[in-house]
User: What shape does this take?
Amino acid sequence: MPVDEEFEKLKDKSKLRLNVLNTGAAKEVEPFTLEGEGTLPPQGSVDFEQVEREVISALRTVHDPEIPLNIYDLGLIYAHDVNDEGDVSIKMTLTAPGCPVAGTLVGNVHESVRRVRDVRHVRTELVWDPPWDRERMSEEARLELGLL
Assistant: This one.
């Protein structure tokens, strides 16, 4: 099933309110999680620091289609953990719960990390707590958008 269809089913089952910007109000939302094996799994020991750098580079290749910046500098990645076996866990959010490309964006993040060399397994989770706000953006991102 395409990612967008799966996300739409989750939205229908959840208590997600559409067309409401992330204003900090608490929302109960079922997590949207993707899991999969890496496409270039490790053949021996893993330099997890190198994998972590490459994961961040991969995350910076994914752009929010409505904002001309990558999702990492926008502050949409809340956590990215890499262990020494090549397992990666990503927690991310969106700028707004009703984002029309939510399923696509989460899928793009997941697939970009799966393609990093020496990644054995990836778990990508869409979370809503804490709510995203502009303060999560990098200084470079705020400068580029004229927010400084």
